[in-house]
Amino acid sequence: MSLHRTELGRTGPRVVFCHGLFGQGRNWTQVAKALSTEHRVTLLDMPNHGRSPWTESFDYVALADLVAAELGEEPVALVGHSMGGKIAMCVALRHPGLVERLAVVDVAPVAYPSGREFVGYIETMRSLDLSALGSRAEAEEALREAVPSSVVRSFLLQNLRRTDDGWHWQLNLELLGESMDGLTGWPAEQLGEASYDGPVLWVGGADSDYISDEHAAEMDRRFPRNRRVLVKGAGHWVHSEQPEVFLEVLRRFLP
């Protein structure tokens, strides 16, 4: 299985980005363009997202191995947000020789208690009658009541594509909906006592509850060389909500 990728920049160290749930590689475009003057940047569509193939099951270890297969032999700086952050952590723990350094954005190596909000989004998207859809504007209006935030609606609707035979969701909504326990979980048993001793930047949004002090012990155990940074005025989507601050923090960390 080969994942869809976008490449920017021709010289410098390699940086590879992994997006979060409902996202696509292009979500990192603004950051990638800024870095591409001094880095070779790869934006990957994660499996079951964007233009990458779908899988039959959701398993962080298996997904990490698919991402690892895309990295080649040259160690890279690997950056991952949320779901992509968990995949990136698994890559570093399972294939440490491929990861020169790791940046984990607003997620911890732990199982989270609930994915109800995400389940609701998936149910809303699946309930949309695509055969009767006339335009993207109609789709946005149909989602308005269940998804009142215009920012979230726009984020979800980036996955809606029109082809010759009508409208389609690029996401594997059925699998993702069935796999919420896996998505919010963490494969601790599969990873055993694995740890990664390379440099790790652990970035959180100060207004997000995805990273807390209680997560620090497990982060320190798995990634003993981590440095934690909280970005003020940002929630879960740190790189979108405070792009300039995030870019500056990331630049200082990258080679």
Summarize this entry quickly.
With 255 residues, the protein is α/β, with parallel strands linked by helices.
Description of the structure:
Helix content is 36%, strand content 18%. Helix 10 links the parallel strand 8 (200-205) and strand 9 (226-231). The radius of gyration is 18 Å and the shape is globular. It starts with a strand and ends with a helix. Helix 2 (60-68) packs across helix 3 (83-94). It is of the alpha/beta class and 255 residues long. The longest helix has 12 residues, at 83-94. It has helices at 29-35, 60-68, 83-94, 116-127, 136-143, 150-157, 173-178, 180-184, 188-191, 216-222, 238-241, 243-253, and strands at residues 5-8, 14-18, 40-44, 76-81, 99-105, 160-163, 166-169, 200-205, 226-231. It is built from 12 helices and 9 strands. Strands 1-3-2-4-5-8-9 form a 7-stranded mixed beta sheet, sandwiched between helices. The chain has a two-stranded antiparallel sheet with strand order 6-7.
